[in-house]
Amino acid sequence: MSRTGKKPLVAERRYRTQASTKKPPKSRTPRPKRPRRGGPLAWIAAVLRFFWRIFWGIAWRTGAVGAVVLAVVVFYFYAQMPPVNDMLDARARGSVTLLDRYDKVFAWRGETFGGQITAQTVSPYLHNAVIATEDRRFYEHFGISLRGIAGAIRINLSEGRGPLEGNGGSTITQQVAKLLCLGVKYDTKIWKSEAAYESDCRRGGLWRKIREVPYALALEARYTKEDILTIYLNRAYLGAGARGFEAAAQRYFGKSANEVGPAEAAMLAGLLKAPSYYAPTNDLQRARDRASVVLGLMQEQGFLTLAEEETARRTPASLSDAAEAQAGGYFADWVMSEGPDFLTSTTTEDVIMRTTLDQRLQAAAEDALKTVFTEKNREESKTQAAVVVMSADGAVRAMVGGRTPQPPGSFNRAAMARRQTGSAFKPFVYAAAMDLGFTPSDFVEDTPLTIKIPGSGAWTPRNYDNKFKGLITLTQALAESRNVPAVKIAEAAGLEAVRKVASDFGIESDLAAGPALALGASEATLIEMTGAYAGILNGGSSVRPFGLIDLRLRQDETPLLGQDGGIGERVISEQSAKYLTYMMYKVVEEGTGRRARLPGREVAGKTGTTSASRDAWFIGFTADYVAGVWIGYDDNTPLKGITGGGLPAEIWREVMTRVQQDLPARPLPMIVPEPRLPPVPGQEAAPGAGQSGRQAVSQPKQPDLAERILQEVLGILGGN
User: Domain span at residue 623?
Assistant: First the structure.
């Protein structure tokens, strides 16, 4: 009991006084050690364990360091990336969209950017076609696909290439990294051109692949999947100068990328593999074959039903009218050169250019040229040709600078080739005479002529047929393209007057100083000559050929530039022009230009052939249009059996037959002169005197020429 007399709640603890009775632990008998196995295997295993420990130690430490470095690089790229809208337009320069006279697109220059589109608003067919073609696991990976890379390496090795040659197994994110040049911006001090910059960015190789990885990871961290796809849709190059799917859809199909159907979407997505090769403007059937492959991928991945795929295959995508025609390439190059460089070839803005081109007339000129050469079995010939069609005010409606369409920047024979004009120059001789009072009914002697040229000796021009017809009218002389009468008329009117008339009409080339001027010894371009003839049609005023109507920025409706060309100052009187038109009408009706006649229409024109047959011309007009045709070889090889009254006149007729289609026939603005009696021998009168008082133009006065005239130039006698 306790001191209080109460029993304790817990029994008292009892302590032993004796030593613990706990038994001591039993002693353990040590197990005998197994004898170590000896031999080479044990040594090999030991060595392997040793090296494994070393390898593992290095590997995890290296991995840890690599992960840290990768994280730092990813963060660096991440921090440098701008908002997604700032990354959609990849171009360093702008583009020019060319509109015809009816405001329809017919050509583009530079890389066009049709406008921003997004992965959310683009046609779902296009969205799915890109995913099916380029990266079916786009929404599953984190920027890179190890499975895709392994598969690409396997394919490359099986085809005998290096592991990183050919297929790269790149995800869309990695492709965007390439399109962004891994964040490196274009610098003119480093790269000579934007093309060189992009080529450098697109180079393959192991180091490039390694650098793609952190950038791709940064893209995935910085942007959403839809943002990455949006960048891709806007920056991808798709051939024909189209940057982004919006520009490509507009260029190939004339519609927005938001509106394309399955067949069109498949064709656009198919361009990603090889844009220029699969461009439908290069080979439509090849583009359709590629689109068929894409349709199959879309169906396999559940983006299209079997019925939708079959419908798309039955109705493949077709080009827009503008894309199919590919009209006006030479015209586009020429009109681009007419505007200022900072708004055309080197523009940093997107520019809209309204022009004078008529696509119907352009197609007519191209078709006519092809038809004539095909029918004449000259398809394999290296003979070149050029055609220009314009209005009387100088507005160029069609231009063909060669027999076949060529890439932008090709040599344009209509605007760039300076060739000897031959007898096509003679109308300017008679224009000077008409303005001095001569009439088409006046007479000239077609008789032998020798002129003494100071410093060059005697020069004797010859007619094309080596015959002389004696006393003939000026009309007959021009109609038959007689050389000797042309020289006599030029001497009578004055060579300086002839030179001035030709220059004022727009012949900008250096004109010959001597009497060979009358026979077309000088050079000129086809557009110059056609513009000069337009001056005759419009009543005698000069013409500056023009193709530019106005030019504005895409986002601005206010034109920056207006028309620079058209009718200028008067060169000859209206009466003189109408007299000359009558004489040129007779060239077609009765003279060397008979092959250019159009049934039911009045035509005026002039043939031209150089004596060495290096050039052949026909330039003429109706009441509505002026057209010029030139034929020759680029290397000045003589033409065989071709004169201005032959193939050029036939081409002109075919062109104008198509041009004048559905247009009512209108009479030429010409004056039919009153006939005159032959002059009375020995009687003299001033030009324009009465019918009985006029003396024929005979032996001209000897020219007082100080300029040296090369004998070879003087020997170039225009034919018919």
Answer: 370-714
